[in-house]
Amino acid sequence: MAENLRLEVVTPEKSVVSEGAQIVMAPGSLGEFGVLPGHTPFLTTLKTGALKYKDESGRERFVFVSSGFAEALPDRVTVLAESAERRKDIDIERAKAALERAEKRLQTQAREEEIDFIRAKAALLRAIGRIQLAQTR
Asked: What is the pLDDT of residues 3-21, one digit of tens each?
């Protein structure tokens, strides 16, 4: 049987994934990267997006991650994310509500200097990403 990686995806609040994987594809801040067993060790930052992996049975799985770090070792990938949720756990209605809130905050940016533009834009990108991933079911 082929060797597998150990995939760990954790946030400050919880462990989201802890299982074996044949391959892991993640949204690196410099571009998407893939890790197979035996990979050269490296550490990188992540951008908001979909982390894809094949579980031990070969089934493709998805996890939405919101920035963070990834460490690849020959036998393991560890992702420390600001937030993360499996595709099956994404609440589309909640994500749509977050999208509306972020859009409203960005529209009021011109009128109110107190709005944190960077945070509002990040919230918008997270909501869009979650909705897109959830709708690929």
From this structure: 899 999 999 999 999 999 9
Tokens 């060790």 belong to residue: 41
Residue corresponding to tokens 């550490």: 43
Decide: pTM greater than 0.90. no
Is residue 23 within 8 A of residue 34, CB to CB? The reply is yes
The answer to whether 100 touches 120, Cβ cutoff 8 Å, is no
Task: Give the CATH fold of the 5-88 domain.
Answer: ATP Synthase; domain 1 (2.60.15)
Q: pLDDT digits over 30-89, tens only?
A: 999 999 999 999 999 999 999 999 999 999 999 999 989 999 999 999 999 999 999 898
Question: Three-state DSSP class for 121?
Answer: helix
Q: How far apart are CA 84 and CA 64, in angstroms?
A: 5
| Class (C level, CATH) for 90-134 | mainly alpha
